[in-house]
C-alpha cells in the first residue's frame, strides 16, 4: 500500500499519487532501547500471534543476559492466550490511543517517511528498500529518534 504524506504545491494544484491495485504485505516487528538506539527487528509474512511469538523468542535469545521490558499497544496478537512469554521479557501495555508513549513509534514514522511516495513494482523490491533503510541507521540516529527524555528518565528512575 502506498504511504502518502502531504506535499506543498501551487495554490489549486492537487498532487497526484500513482497507485497500483492489489496489495501484498510483509510486517516488521521491532523493539528499541531508546537511550542507546540498540534495536531488534524481525520481518514476517503475517501480523498475528505466531509472528509475535517468533519475535518474542528471537528478542529473548538476542538479549538473554538481561531482563527486557517491551512497551506494547493493545493489539490482539500482543495479548493472545497462546503466547509463551520468555522469562527474561516483561510486557507493559499502553493505554489506548497513546502512541507517543511508545519509543519505537517515531522510528516507524521515519521509515514510513523514507518510503512515502515511492511505487515498488514487487514486494521483494519494497523489502530490499526497507532493509537498505534499516541498515543505514546508526545507534546514535535511532537513539535521537526514540530517546524521549521523559522515557529515559522514567526507565532510569530508582524505586523509592
General description of the model:
The strands form 2 sheets. A two-stranded antiparallel sheet has the order 1-2. Strands 3-4 form a two-stranded parallel sheet. By secondary structure, it is α+β, with helices and mostly antiparallel strands. The termini are far apart. β1 and β2 (39-44) form a beta hairpin. The mean pLDDT is 87. 35% of the residues lie in helices and 14% in strands. The protein has one domain: Ribonuclease H-like superfamily/Ribonuclease H (Nucleotidyltransferase, domain 5). The chain has helices spanning 49-62, 104-115, 123-136, 139-146, 149-156, and strands spanning 27-32, 39-44, 68-72, 89-93. The protein contains 5 helices and 4 strands, in the order ββαββαααα.
In the CATH hierarchy, what is the architecture at level 2? 2-Layer Sandwich
Backbone shape: globular
Which class best fits the helix and strand makeup?
alpha+beta
Low-pLDDT ranges: none
Number of helices: 5
Q: Going across the biggest sheet, name each strand in turn.
A: 1-2
- Looking at CATH, the homologous superfamily is Ribonuclease H-like superfamily/Ribonuclease H
Under CATH at level 1, the class stands as: Alpha Beta
Can you summarize this structure?
With 160 residues, the chain is an alpha+beta fold.
Detail the topology: elements first, then pairings.
Elements: E1 27-32, E2 39-44, H1 49-62, E3 68-72, E4 89-93, H2 104-115, H3 123-136, H4 139-146, H5 149-156
Parallel strand pairs: 3-4
Antiparallel strand pairs: 1-2
